[in-house]
Every structure is written in structure tokens, then in C-alpha cells.
Amino acid sequence: IISKLPQTGTTIFTVMSALANEVGAINLSQGFPDFDTPPRLVELVNTAMKNGHNQYAPMPGVMALREQIAQKTERLYGAVYNPETEITITAGGTQAIFTAITAVVNPNDEVIIFEPAFDCYAPAIKLAGGIVKSLELSPPDYRIPWDMVRRLINNKTRMIILNTPHNPTATILQQEDIDELSAIVKNQDILILSDEVYEHLIYDGETHHGMARYPELQKRSFIVASFGKPFHATGWKVGYCMAPAFLMQEFRKVHQFLVFSVNAPIQYAIAEYLKDENTYLSLPDFFQQKRDHFRKGLEQTRFELLPCAGTYFQSVTFNNITDEKDSDFALRLTKEFRVAAIPTSVFYTQGTDHHVLRFCFAKKQETLDKAVDRLIKL
Ligand code: GLN
């Protein structure tokens, strides 16, 4: 066969988690919690199953859940989405991203991404026949060079993919970024795909500058969100996409034949759980404590900490420790020191010289402490 993705191997998340398991390392690589999903939420899933919600959900998702999402979005960001036509429940963020790209990117359309970029963006663009136009961001700030974005734009530019809070760099878009972006897309036929799966994981009282806050951006955006991250249930693979009706209509044409619909009882459970806004408004405090505790621990090591404004990832540079490539170092760290991390160079299509590792701190305090004890030995 002729590979459609000749450059693509197995995703780093699978590679590192498998290695961590194989050698018995503390797995701070792939992002998922090692603590429990909220018991009340699990109970609600049980109840939904007992109540017989075990057959196909409607193709766009359970209405009660779409309604809760619409209410939450309006309350938090002021945007009004019609649950009937503008919200679809997906099998996690990744499916939503793939679906949105497949729905609107035509062969030879150009899509701008910022690297390091989450690893599913570029393959999805390529499978749609699109052209990846990547701009490299650099530590420690990873700011988007908007003048370079401007220079990349031409009449083939179909989409810009944004991610805030950003995986893997833990940065967030600022008001200046929104202003620049708004000026760039104004009067242009450019769509936005905004990956906001960490929207509730923002620290130090900062604001989530999601597309739903800005009518000029919102009207051209697919916004992708997740329930796995906020509700400590990454294995459930339930998320959603919001977009204006003319975009959502195209999205659903793909969604219906990709998955048709997603897990029904979990949708009923989350619809109930979302009624209490504290379930997500308490998250910044919860994770900020972990961030601060982990950062304090890492300060005792020879790693240098990069800023962390959001997500549950902490990146570090390691120039004081070794001049190995990050991917080599990550393997050695896992095998010899038994702590697994993600080497961030895999998130650049052309590779990079930046020596940065990403650790996930969505872990019990004892797990983080144990990892730090091992990292101190470096
Ligand atoms: N979002 C998770 C991370 O960045 C991984 C998702 C996945 O494994 N596909 O670690």
C-alpha cells in the first residue's frame, strides 16, 4: 500500500506510557490523573445505566447535556449556542478535532498551526489533503509571532488552529493575542479551530481567552472541549464541539459516519453533574495546589522550570543535566530513573533543538513526591 501518512509513527503518548508500564516507571508522560474520578459522577453513570439509558444516544448527543453545555457557555463566556444546531457531543477532543478538520479542509487548503502542536493536528490536515503551515514557538514564553502569521496568510488559508491553555507548553492566549487574531481574520474567509480542552485549568486568577468570548472570532470557530480533563475521566472519551450552525451542519455530516453517536449513559450522568457549577469552578484551586507543590519539588533538581499558566503540564529544560536530545533523554530517564516524561520535540514537524520535557502533574501528592525524589538524583 501507499501510506497516506508516511512520516507518522505511533503517537508519543502510547509509546511513553507503554515504556513506563514496561519498566515500572512513575508515569508523568501521557496526561491523565492517577486519582479517582469523582464518586458522585461515577454514581450518576450507574444510575443512568440502571435507568435504562443504554441504547444509542441521538447522533448529535443527549439533549440534556447539550443544554447544560449551552448554559455553561453563556454563563461563563456570554456566547449563545443553540443546543439543537450548534453543539455536538464527541468521543473526546481528538475526535472533535479530526471531525472539524475533515469537514471543512479541502485539498490544497492551507492550515496554520503553531508548534509545538498537539500531535493529532498535522495528520488530520494531511489526511484531508490540506497543507500544514507551521510556525515555531520558542521557550520560555512561546508567544505567537503575529507578524509572521500575517505573512503566511494568502487566499488558500482556510483555517488557523489555536490551543489555549496550550498543550504541551502550558501557556495561555492573552488579550493582545486575541486582538491580533481578530484584526487578522476580519473580513477574511478564514476559520478557526480552537482546542480548549483545558479551559477550566487556568491558574493565578488568569482569564481563559476562549473564542466564545469574542463574537468576531466565535462566528468562525469550532471550539473543542473535553470532559475527561475537568472530571478526571480521560478513559471515558467524551467531549464536545461548538460552532455556528453553518459549520456545525458540516461537522455533523462527518461525525454521523465516523462514530454516529457516543456513550449514552455517560452523557446523561455529565448532564446531571454539570448542574453544579462548582464541579468545574473548583478546578483551578485543586490543580494549582498540585502545580505549586510539584514546582517546589522540581526546584530541588537541576531542571529549569518553564512557566505554567494552565493545563496540568509542567515543562522543564535540562541544559544543566545533559546535552542529549530530548527524546533520548526521555527514554533514559524512564529506564534508568524510572520517571516518564514527554519529549516535546515530537510536537514539531521539522524537529527542534529546544531541550524541553513535559511532566504531567495530575497526580496524587505522593506520586509527585516520589517522582521528585528520583529526579533529584540526576
Ligand atoms: N492529551 C493527553 C496528553 O497530552 C494525551 C491524549 C492522548 O493520549 N491521545 O498527554
From TrEMBL:
InterPro entries: Aminotransferase_I/II_large (IPR004839), Kynurenine-oxoglutarate_AT (IPR051326), PyrdxlP-dep_Trfase (IPR015424), PyrdxlP-dep_Trfase_major (IPR015421), PyrdxlP-dep_Trfase_small (IPR015422). The keyword Nucleotide-binding does not apply. CDD domains: AAT_like. Its cofactor is pyridoxal 5'-phosphate. Pfam families: Aminotran_1_2. Keywords: Aminotransferase, Pyridoxal phosphate, Transferase. Residues 26-375 form the Aminotransferase class I/classII large domain. One of its GO terms (cellular component) is cytoplasm. SUPFAM superfamilies: PLP-dependent transferases. One of its GO terms (molecular function) is pyridoxal phosphate binding. Belongs to the class-I pyridoxal-phosphate-dependent aminotransferase family. This is 2-keto-4-methylthiobutyrate aminotransferase apoenzyme.
